[in-house]
Amino acid sequence: MALSSAHAIYFFNLRGDILIERRYRDDVTRDVAENFRTQILNSKDSSAIQTPVRTLGSCTFMHLRHADVYILCISKNNPNVMLAFSFMTSLVSLFKSYFGGDLNEANIQNNFVLIYELLDEAMDFGLPQITDPTILKSLIFQKGSSIDFFEKKKEKADPNATLQVTGAVSWRKEGIKYKKNEVFLDLVEQVNLLMSSNGTILTSDVQGRIMMKCLLSDMPELRVGLNDKVEDATFHQCVNLSTYEAQKVITFVPPDGEFELMKYRCHDGVSLPFKVLPVINEMGRTRLEVNVQIKAAFSSKIYGINMTILVPVPDNTAKANLLVTNGKAKYDATKKALVWKISKFMGESDHSLRAEVTLVATTKEKKPWVRPPISMQFQVPMLSASSVRVAYLKILERKMGSEYHVDKWVRKVVKSGEYIIRT
Amino acid sequence: MSKTVFMRGLQNFIQDIRACQNKEQEQKRVDKELAKIREKFGDDKHQLDGYDRRKYIWKLLYIYMLGYDIDFGHRQACDLIPKPKYKDKQVGYMACSILLHEGDEFLRLAINGIRSDLISRNEAFECLALSFIGSVGGGEMAETLVPDILKLLCNGATRPLVKKRAALCLLKMIRKTPADQQVVNPDTFVPTLNDLLEEHDPGLLLSVVTLLAGILARNGPGGYEPCQSRLIRLLERLIGVNTLKPPDIGPEYLFYGIPSPWLQPLAASEYLFYGIPSPWLQAKCLRALQYFAAPEVPADRASLNAMLQVIIDGKNANSDVSKPGINPNKANAIYAIMFEAISLALHLDMDAKLLESSVVALGTFLTIKEANIKYLALESFARLALLPDILVAIRHHQPTVLASMRDPDISIRKKAMDLLFTMCDANNAPDLVGELLAYLVTADFTMREELVLKIAILAEKFAPTVQWYVDTAMHLLERAGDFVNEDIWHRVVQLVTNNESMQQYAARNMVALLRRGGSHESVVCTAAYLLGEYGRLIKEEVLPMDQFRLLNSLFPAASQNAKGLLMTAFIKIYLLAPQDQNLKKEIVSLFERFQKFMDAELQQRAAEYLTLADQPQAAVEKFILPMPKWPERESTLLRQLQKREGTEDDVSSSAVLGTAASGQVPDVQTQTLQPSASQSPPPPAAAASIDLLGDEALLGPSTSDPFAVLQSSASAGMTSNSQVAPAKPPPSNPVDLLSDLFSDTVLSTAPAPVPASVPAPAPVAVSNPFVAAFPSAGPAQVAGSYPTQMTGSYPPQMTGSYPTQMTGSYPSQMTGSYPTQMTGSYPPQMTAGMTPPTYPTAAPSAGPFAVPPPAPIMAPPIPLMAPASVMNPFASSLPISSASAPAPIPLAASAAFSPFGASASGQVSAGPSAGPTGGAPTPYAGPTGGVPSAFLPSYPAPIPAYTLPPAMPPPPVIAAPPTAGGFNDPFGDQAFGAPPVSLPPPVATGDVNAWFNSLLNKERGIFYEDQYLQVGVQARYTEGRGDFTLFLGNKSAEHPLSQVSVVVNSAASVTAAITAPVPVQILPKQQLQVPIQLTCLAPVTDVPSLHLAYVIGNQSLQQQLQIPVANHKFLVPDTTVAKELFFEQWKLYGNPPNKAQEMVSRETPLSTAPIISVVQQAGLGVEHGYLDPSPYNEAGAAYFVFGTPGSKQRALVMCRVEGNPQNMAQFRVTVSSPLPQLSASTKDMIVSKLKSISPS
């Protein structure tokens, strides 16, 4: 059974207590899960938890952390690891959509029954089945305890649930009605950067997603036109791929509610929103001078928000005198870094941080400081880091024709992915 | 102190840590705290006050104890030690003792502070310093501080409180200093010790006795003898006053010059432990006394004896353990004293009465449930059992000990096993071994191996008869199976071999055992040996076939080693009944299977035995002989046990064994391996003179497999060589039994004959190198799995020597004049006529290897010939061998003329990537060892070097000739000497226009064809682009098409370009592709053309063709065009020339489906009833995409076919688009199709 991905699924809290156990095959015992706790989670070697896939004896442990919960897949044969991980991620989004909030320990404890029911549907004999929330919601009506009951009126049980699952347009039900038709389209791009200490870009790419929220009646067909810059696209199952092949137009009948229409990746022509110029001087054993300058490389009409810059400092830092031209900065011992937060960073401007860091002399001979890289988090609304644009968004409803009125909303935002500058 | 308890910050921190849900939170909290402490400690401007400093040090300590690494704050901790306040000192010492270790540099900072504390005369400080030194102090500290500690210890003014710490601290220092250094001098220190031993404080006494015991354990009693009597006095004080009544010890005890204060009993009530005065001190004293020899003063001796008697008898009402309901603590205290007393009694070798009462006491302990006591009792018993006098007494407890073997605690079981082993002797051995064997089945797995070993040793040591031993050993093998060490079955085999009377019995027993289903590895090995060797003795009762079946059933699961042994057994069993055809078939098929086995050892055995099986008579006479007796050797079992247990009782047991074993096999003790060969039944002299090479002279010609024979005898020779060669000493040390088994059986004749064949020294000398050289080739020939080694191990120079061996060994067998053949006449033998017969004979046995050996010579041609045909390399080499000289030239020339036009110097490196010839140069690189570009010049070189022109030629020559059909072929150039071939002129086999028209309506088909060439087409159209692939196929089976050219000419509306190089020639029956890319720039008005040309033989073709493109090919159908858009455009282009319209009338009516299909064929997307709701009408739309890739344009083409509802044979076709030509052509297309379509 090379396809199988899991013999059992476990949920752990951070302490290592088992929250949920669901075994799909009989050859896994609970002791095996104990091994995860002792060998990986609470291992003396703290890096053990950082390896997501680990084979101990005959068992392969694949785990994923989400908030304060570890999800663990155990397999005893040669598993398809990618399948296991994508299954676990879809489990997370499935639970989230059921709970109406985040997936965390408290939510799991409040929804044992529901989770078991979902796990029964989502996987069978270790083989992933349905993980799409919209479909499962027509099979399992129970709601998560934290779901807001006023959000939607209770839907009736769909008598044709099976038919829908196996039908041609499995992702959308017939007869959805909205008073007001609305479509939201968000183009979310994540910029990843790895820059060497001398300023050369080692890797940079953009991972984009088009997120949609459709509140549309009946069976509309949507067309999204993009300019030609898209590489490496993956689509939601609703997209008609042959039309895309032929005409580069994304044509689809959308599922109801929120979903991710497509993902893409661009390597070329990435425009980096921020330039970082770090200068870090070690002045003897007990002093360090840090000077970090950041320039915004986008138009002055837009601005970055929620920026956090982490400038790592040695472990034996005693204190830091900081001076910044914008935002706030402080030394955070738990992160072992200077944390510089800027709430608004205007385009085409530049800001800098200067810090004098005092170190405590250590008593043990230590390796020289390895100078970990500077990392950044930010969001820049209305910017696109790749040159992908949404050319148009058309909605066509055959039965109603031109009677069909839709409000369309298109936004875009650039977020930081792994934005790392070596020092 | 009180303030330490109420450090608010510390408490809060600990509370925070305890409240952490998980490790991550804890880590965060700790990091935060550490940062804070770093900040405080790092701030040099503001000195911390004492309270804060202590608080942070406590916090650091707490963090450290949680397991986090602390890399600062040590200095601050050390700084606290010299502070004047007790609070500071306390924290400083505490932190230092936890954070620092012995060798830490920071200790140097503290050492002065510690010293000043030691001499401070402040008791509290002294105690702090002493306990710190005791817990941390290392060598360096010992050096500096020992005098001060000694001073404290000796000083009468020091209180016992400090002294006892000083004593323990001193002990630690003594332990820390290297063994060769003396910390204290006995002469000066003994008086001090004696004084201290007279102290009254039991705590101090305990420390001092510990110190004394420590010193004694380290340095021995030398110099400390005076302390012994003091210790006895001390004991007297402890025991005597309370327990001894004057009648017990006699009145004299009171008068031994004891100063009166001593008579004061020690036992103040606070030191009574359940009524026993200072039990731990008593135990310590008894322990310390064990380091001394027996006291010399008779009074001391008597006193000690009396005290031990009292203790061991346990008569004292106060120390009767057997009393029910006794407090366990009290019992423990009593036991502690009791066990120490027993070991002291043992040590001093007191009178028998004492020891016997010890046995009685221990016997009662054995029955106690408490595991620790039982364990200690068993241990003491084991020590007592070594005394022969006591052994008898101990035997009474044998049932109890055996019962202990079933104790749930494994350590007790192990001890009991050890004890039983010690207790065993010839009288009780059969019983005990029987018990142990019975126990073996249920024994714990961790114990089994040792238990098996011990049973085996006991069985061997105390065996009443050999038969009993064999029975026991077989039982052992059967029951313990996997835990049986190899040595055990080796030993069985040895004993059976050396006892003729046992052999039949053993074989019979083994058959019975196998029939019961014994199948462990060691059983298999023993069975293989015993049945193989002594199966003949029972062949009447158990047929050889049955023996074979019994063993063969074990074969599949056996290990490699066991398989080897089994194979040896098989051949021996076979030789018992060579006439049994069934048996022969089974055995031979097994050997044949294993001739191709991966493991070289098994493979070799199979090959050799197979040959032997062919010659049963010779095999029985010369090769497969009964095993000689084994030389007597030290029992490996005992050796192993000694290794395991150290030197315990080795002397006695091996001595016992020696007598026992020598009694059984008296005459083989001094044999070594070498004489054993000569002692074995002497083979006939004739056989001896045949010698190594003679073997194959006998066997070689008659077998179909000369290689195997040659090899087996060669390898036999090789192994025997080591014995024959005078330079090498015979392997006198007992070799591993396993290898013995094999080599001995096979070679049992070999060692003897060789010296006999010495008369002609030269042949032997020659044969040795031969034999030595051969094995390197030998395994490779037989081994099925070493092709890579083969090619690797034949460097060019080997090619010379290899055929020599081959030919040398074969023809020479006939004549016997081996050396002369070798030196003289091998050029003639090397002629091609000689070699082929050699190789083919080798081939069947060596399989794939027959061909690789000649590789360096022959390999190069093979790739060259590949394209031509399959040709026998040997055969091909023959005709050309005369043409060695010109050989390089065609090769070079053809390369030079290759279509790639490289110059003569560079052509070879260009060659590899070029085509079918590419493989050729690389094989040359191997044997010549050069890079490809060097191979041409290197050719002449080997020829003179070998001076064998006729033998050498094959490689260079074959390069060219296989292409006999024409030199041009592999290098693809007809300019090079291709004789003109007469062929008919090419004529198209069909109508070029018809092909063109049909291709307009489909995407693949024939484009052009004549009797030599077929051109097919496959096209794909996407958005204004066409990917057009021509398939050029040479139909001719003999002749290549050369000078092939395909040239395209773009038209105004459609550009055409060839996107990959057009091949210049097409080999016979080859098909090549030519991709062409078409781009539509505007509605198609004219079509691009294509010029095709080629030459075949003396004929050529020039052909102009039209590329089949039309407007509809570039239409992208859209069935779901938005209605609004459609009608908007329909209106916009509703007038001529954008709109084209025509009426069509057919003779037959059409239904909806064919109309839709017509529209679809015209390239438009249509969905019935979508754009035009009328059921009689069809409307369709498509995008026409055109323009260069950067500036593509799209035009919507719309069409409507309206049927007459009354007469569906009449239609109105309307097409509109932004481009008039497009509208017209699309309309024409639809109209013509509507007209031509046949009714459905």
Write the layout of secondary structure elements.
The complex is a heterodimer of chains A (423) and B (1240).
Chain A: E1 8-13, E2 18-23, H1 30-41, E3 53-56, E4 59-66, E5 69-75, H2 81-99, H3 105-110, H4 112-122, E6 123-124, E7 127-128, H5 133-139, H6 161-166, E8 181-195, E9 201-215, E10 221-226, E11 234-235, H7 241-247, E12 249-252, E13 257-266, E14 274-283, E15 287-296, E16 303-312, E17 317-324, E18 328-332, E19 337-346, E20 350-359, E21 374-381, E22 390-396, E23 406-421
Parallel strand pairs in A: 8-23
Antiparallel strand pairs in A: 1-2, 1-5, 3-4, 4-5, 6-7, 8-9, 9-13, 10-12, 10-22, 11-13, 14-15, 15-20, 16-19, 16-21, 17-20, 18-19, 21-23
Chain B: H1 2-5, H2 8-19, H3 23-42, H4 50-65, H5 74-80, H6 86-99, H7 106-118, H8 123-136, H9 139-154, H10 160-176, H11 186-197, H12 202-219, H13 226-243, H14 246-249, E1 272-273, E2 276-277, H15 279-289, H16 298-313, H17 328-348, H18 352-366, H19 371-384, H20 388-395, H21 398-404, H22 410-423, H23 429-440, H24 445-461, H25 466-480, H26 486-498, H27 500-516, H28 521-534, H29 544-552, H30 560-576, H31 581-594, H32 600-614, H33 616-623, H34 636-645, H35 650-664, H36 673-679, H37 685-699, H38 706-724, H39 737-747, H40 753-756, H41 761-782, H42 787-792, H43 796-815, H44 818-823, H45 826-829, H46 835-846, H47 855-858, H48 861-865, H49 873-880, H50 888-896, H51 907-914, H52 921-928, H53 935-938, H54 942-946, H55 954-958, H56 968-971, H57 992-1001, E3 1004-1009, E4 1013-1022, E5 1025-1034, E6 1042-1049, E7 1054-1058, E8 1071-1080, E9 1089-1096, E10 1099-1106, E11 1115-1117, H58 1123-1132, E12 1139-1145, H59 1152-1161, E13 1165-1166, E14 1177-1186, E15 1193-1203, E16 1210-1216, H60 1220-1236
Domain MHD (chain A): 180-422
Family (chain A): Belongs to the adaptor complexes medium subunit family.
Membrane topology (chain A): Peripheral membrane protein
